[in-house]
Amino acid sequence: MARQEQGMVEKRGAGLWLAHVFMITGVLIVSFPIWLAFVASTVTHSEIVSPPMPVWPGDRLWENYKEALFSGANVPVAKMLWNSLIMAVGIATGKIIISLLSAFAIVYFRFPCRSMFFWMIFLTLMLPVEVRIVPTFEVVAGFGMLNTYYGLIFPLIASATATFLFRQFFLTIPDELAEAARVDGAKPMQFFIDIVVPMSRTNMAALFVILFIYGWNQYLWPLLITTDPEMNTIVMGIKQMLPTGDDITEWPVIMATSILAMIPPIIVVISMQKLFVRGLVDSEK
Amino acid sequence: MEKRVTFRGWGLPFFLIAPQIIVTVVFFFYPAIQALWQSLFIPDPFGLSSQFVGLGNFIFLLNDEFYAASFLTTAVFSTLVTVCTMVPALFLAVVADRLIKGSGTYRTLLIWPYAVAPAVAGVLWLFMFNTRVGLVSWYLGQIGYDWNHVLNGGEAMGLVVVASAWGRISYNFLFFFAALQAVPRSVIEAAAIDGARFWRRFFTIVLPLLSPITFFLLVVNIVYSFFETFGVIHTITAGGPQQSTTILVYKVFSDGFVGQDLGSSSAQSVILLVIVGLLTVIQFKYIEKRVHY
After folding, report:
1. Nearest to B19 among A9, A101, A281 (CB)
2. By the 8 A CB rule, do B268 and B38 touch?
3. Interface pTM (ipTM) of the complex?
4. Out of A96-105, A153-162, B85-94, which region has the weakest mean confidence (pLDDT)?
5. Quick check: B167 contacting A, CB < 8 Å?
């Protein structure tokens, strides 16, 4: 995105330095909470409870993370990380697959109730999980899916956004390709697998980044349906670690858990920054 | 827009669209209808039978001072979150846009809080302002300010607002930055030649050109503050003290799951559905406009 030519209105000298100062201050303020959490995850409990806590990392990094990962409070954090990973990957993959299939059906076929189905998918935009929590919980309980990965994944898997995105994209695929496939006697599914899917690869990857973060960061839904600590996801599990009342709060372990909870999505965002920005812009259109 | 070339057959497309439709019906429509239905009843305390009350639950809610208070809380909360996230994001984007070198690096450094879940953001801010061990609250104490969000409703509100706005700055920054980069250089330079200084150029040229993206972000941020901030509130204040941070979504949860008042919780869900519906319509109206530009 960097501009190639240097225009005449860019400031030099003092103004430029001031701009850098503002940006660095902004970055520092925005990063400070994460830095402090990291510091807290590397010191001892007693260093935190006698304020002010240090602002530079201590030497307990290994011990604190080991304790969090393998002991945790109710359940080892490693187990919660695993649950989160399954949930996030399951939601992202599931949304992409069912949206890809339904967009293909909507764009490349004429069948009864087509536009009704389209509107039904559209309407799910208006039904975020937060507004239908009690009845959705009852449905999932009725299926016996409480404390299961199915229960964590399926209710969040319908995706109007992804369906629209693929629909828009399929509409830009030249008609000649489908024509040629038909003349060659290719079956619709052959056309789908050999032409449509490979062409959608970038869109799928960009969506995957966004949906992975969406799935990883879910809070309310896992909170409702995982009563068994063994099934907790890490984002909701941290809250369970915060004590109620006058118990001793193991801050270093909790903060180590918080850091562990943000590492996977942060890695995804930073390492796939281009895809992430593209997915963000695409999925909001 | 439609495809000219399509494939024949009915069976296959039904089969392809079936998974999406089944999930939609089972986990979206059925629960939504169920919420509508339950909102017309009051179940007895043992859950054995329920009594049809028509719009009774709604009438009760509209006259309930706690519900009115929750509406007001939500309005204050979402206004503050939207302002606290958009103003710093716009400022940083404007500054970054002026830099020729390094704006990419700053973008990378600003992006990552987006990846932090609202609930985790809640824990981070709770830790900084914790009344016993928090670093910020300790320094506030040193300068004579006694911070206690557990007892003080205003401070609790301030804390959940900042924690909710924090991670969203990245998101807003990205969109503002992209929009600023798309402003034609020639327009800016023409104004500069005419002697317009930076702030004048900003208010008369850049800001009007940013108005579509600003409106878009406004709607998106309001939706965010209504629904996705549940994690922040649940971790930091759990709606307290004295319900001073109980936003509408939190009240659906606490009345339905904690209070077991299913009729009222369902009626609240229905009211929220109407609000989301309105916001979605506004969002799409705007997008249509932008497409026709």
Report:
1. A101
2. no
3. 0.87
4. A153-162
5. no
